[in-house]
Design brief:
The complex is a heterodimer of chains A (320) and B (342).
Chain A: H1 2-22, H2 24-39, H3 46-71, H4 79-93, H5 98-123, H6 127-145, E1 150-151, H7 155-162, E2 164-165, E3 168-169, H8 170-188, H9 190-200, H10 202-207, H11 212-238, E4 240-241, H12 250-260, H13 272-291, H14 296-319
Antiparallel strand pairs in A: 1-4, 2-3
Helix pairs in contact in A: 2-13, 3-8, 3-11, 3-12, 3-13, 4-5, 4-6, 4-11, 5-6, 5-11, 7-11, 8-9, 9-11, 12-13, 13-14
Chain B: H1 2-19, H2 21-53, H3 60-85, H4 93-107, H5 112-135, H6 141-159, E1 167-168, H7 174-180, E2 182-183, E3 186-187, H8 188-206, H9 208-218, H10 220-225, H11 230-256, E4 258-259, H12 267-277, H13 289-309, H14 314-340
Antiparallel strand pairs in B: 1-4, 2-3
The chains are: A mainly alpha (320), B mainly alpha (342).
């Protein structure tokens, strides 16, 4: 009996450690919420929760597409530029009504995704390079279409950006719906299973007869579409199209959210719940530092530390 | 990625050699030539077209301007070449370039030595940490240097009161002369860059360290089995890349006589583009220093031509550079595949 009990203790500790690593991101969010509840005045208020949730929505939507790309052992650096392209297209087509403008913007994002996916799937260019090329070209294209900031005055867009349903902002509802849809896709659909198989081992997936090219192209088209939707929502919230600065460094925030959320960079696994928590964690971290009058530069340094810490933790997990 | 790639590539080459020795070697030689000198041919064509189209292209002022503005990117691309040949990537160079410039401008009040050593020390240290995390902790280069990019930008912002303070370099100081003086009609930064490229080429081609860099990029496991110091080689290349970015930033500050905080955004992409256009493979194990120089010049000539057209703004510059990068990478991938399996 004693021997058994002795043997069990280290196993339990190991399991505990694994649990902490697995759910560390949720723990991080919980700690930040607790710290803020105690130390930040006016943190616990409907108004503040609303603000935080609205701010996290676009990042989260982009991160969902990024999670799919990373799950397929790729990455999508063009997401920030796709947001800029989408905001330019909105301004150009708003004359034909908000719905058409939104459709054109999303189609634009999907076109960029198609270009990314074709380079990666058919020609075998590394994802980081293919999406890098589209990142440079996409931002340029956005600026060619709309050279400077332009106000967006449209009642439909205004409702989208600042309206709510039963007290929950539209932006948050859309982000939540998309997160559920992507989580369902990853867990329950053939496409999701094929994506994970390809991310796990592309040669093996190829040998097993999976439609590797089609799946990869679809991954980047979906990522482009999601980034474009994020661009639409950001435009609606700001009531302005700013192709120069909209979405800059968005690829970094999205990758951070995905990686911090426990999706390994080596592919084969996608954690949507973790990605949501990762996006919330980064948002809370930024908000906490700003609320306590720490300069914005500190958020960048903090984000850098969080990324490295998360990747280190993920590495330990992978070793076991 | 390299790990899974290399065994496949090795067997492919073996099969090629066995089955089609004659035809394959000829196609191989042609595509190798294309890969090595494609950028140079494109550069010559661009220069010819530009000088025939614009009278202002071949003027001394324009050439001098292009040379000096190429010099800073070239120094960054030099360090990046070493990193990419090992199969890695360094996304922090743009931030390190900006940080180096600000530190140099701030340090210049304490003399030229401080102005040069401070950015080298700080950027070299960040590069060293990158290398340690990548080689010892075995984290992905892409994510580590991404974090370093944020870190360096954060340090830069806190040094400059959130970007509101610009440090100026005394125009009469020796440090400012280093950036602005000319030797035989050519700017000092250009001479320094040229010297560094010669040094870099000799190190990569002729030194034992250079052999290790190729070996690590070709097949890390094989390199380790052969007794190459894999970890030390990786740590060194990231440190060199950080040093190069810091030095380029310092030289740029001396040229502009101030440490401009908004510089360096997207520079990592320009540097990676230049290296890739120059024929270095992103999968590692293959590449050369002179190609990166040609890549930088090609990018700068394209930018210059777009500026000359005038009515086209910098937005088109980005479209063209992005499209150009895509075309080059596609061509490279095709040529590379041809070389491996006919």
């Amino acid at each position: 009996m004693t021997e058994l009990a002795l043997r069990r203790t280290p196993v339990d500790r190991e399991r505990l450690l694994r649990l902490v690593q697995e759910y560390g991101v949720y723990l991080g969010v919980a700690v930040l919420v607790l710290v803020n509840t105690v130390f930040t005045p006016h943190f616990v208020s409907g108004e503040n929760f609303r603000t935080q949730a609205v701010q996290v929505a676009p990042v989260l939507i982009v991160a969902l597409g990024m999670a799919l790309a990373i799950g397929s052992e790729g990455v999508d650096l063009s997401v920030g530029s796709v947001m800029a392209l989408s905001t330019s297209l909105i301004s150009l087509y708003l004359g034909y009504g908000p719905w058409l403008a939104i459709i054109v913007a999303v189609l634009g994002g999907m076109a960029v995704g198609l270009a990314n996916g074709s380079l990666i799937a058919f020609i075998g260019v590394q994802p980081i390079v293919a999406t890098l090329a589209l990142m440079v070209a996409g931002r340029g294209l956005a600026l060619v279409l709309l050279p400077q900031l332009k106000d967006v005055r449209d009642p439909g867009m205004a409702t989208l950006g600042s309206g709510d349903l039963l007290g929950i902002p539209h932006l948050v509802l859309i982000a939540a719906a998309l997160a559920l849809a992507v989580a369902f896709t990853v867990r329950r659909t053939t496409f999701g299973r094929q994506l994970l198989a390809i991310g796990d081992s592309r040669p093996a997936a190829q040998l097993a007869g999976l439609p590797v090219r089609r799946v990869l192209i679809l991954v980047y088209v979906v990522s482009g579409a999601l980034a474009a939707i994020a661009g639409v929502l950001a435009t609606a919230r700001l009531s302005a199209s700013d192709p120069t600065s909209l979405g800059t460094l968005m690829e970094l925030s999205a990758i951070t959210a995905v990686v911090v959320g426990g999706t390994p960079l080596s592919g084969g696994r996608v954690r949507i719940g973790g990605t949501v928590a990762g996006a919330v964690l980064i948002q809370l971290l930024t908000a906490t530092l700003i609320k306590h009058d720490l300069p914005p530069s500190w958020t960048q340094i903090a984000q850098a530390v969080v990324i490295v810490a998360a990747v280190c933790a993920a590495r330990e997990r992978g070793k076991r | 990625m390299t790990d899974t790639d290399s065994p496949v590539r090795a067997t492919d080459t073996a099969r090629t050699a066995e089955e089609e020795p004659l035809g394959a070697s000829r196609a191989e030689r042609l595509s190798a030539l294309g890969q090595q000198h494609g950028a140079l041919v494109a550069l010559i064509v661009m220069v010819l077209v530009a000088s025939l189209t614009f009278d202002s292209f071949l003027t001394g002022d324009n050439l001098e301007n292009m040379a000096v503005s190429s010099a800073f990117l070239a120094v960054v691309a030099l360090g990046m070449t070493f990193v990419i040949v090992t199969g890695g990537i360094d996304l922090s160079v743009g931030s390190l370039f900006a940080l180096g410039g600000v530190l140099a401008a701030w340090g210049s009040r304490y003399g030229t030595l401080v102005a040069l050593l401070l950015p080298l020390a700080v950027c070299g240290l960040i590069g060293l940490v990158n290398g340690l995390l990548i080689a010892r902790a075995r984290l992905a280069p892409f994510i580590v240097t991404l974090a370093a990019m944020l870190l360096a930008r954060g340090i830069l912002l806190s040094v400059t009161d959130e970007g509101s303070t610009t440090y100026l370099v005394d125009e009469k100081s020796f440090f400012a002369h280093l950036g602005q003086d000319k030797l035989l009609g050519i700017g000092v930064p250009v001479w320094i860059t040229a010297a560094l490229f010669v040094l870099g080429a000799v190190v990569l081609r002729r030194s034992r360290f250079g052999q290790y860099v190729y070996a690590v990029g070709g097949n890390e496991d094989a390199a380790a089995l052969m007794g190459a110091p894999v970890a030390r080689t990786k740590i060194t290349v990231y440190t060199v890349s950080g040093l190069c970015a810091g030095l380029a930033g310092a030289l740029n500050a001396a040229w502009l006589v101030s440490g401009v905080t908004i510089l360096g955004n997207g520079m990592e992409l320009e540097a990676i583009s230049a290296v890739v256009i120059g024929g270095t493979l992103l999968t590692g194990g293959f590449g050369f220093i002179s190609g990166s120089l040609v890549g930088v010049l090609l990018l700068k000539v394209i930018q210059n031509v777009i500026n000359q057209i005038g009515s086209l703004d910098s937005a088109y510059q980005q479209v063209v550079s992005g499209a150009f990068l895509a075309v080059v990478v596609v061509a490279q991938t095709w040529l590379g595949r041809r070389r491996r399996a006919p």
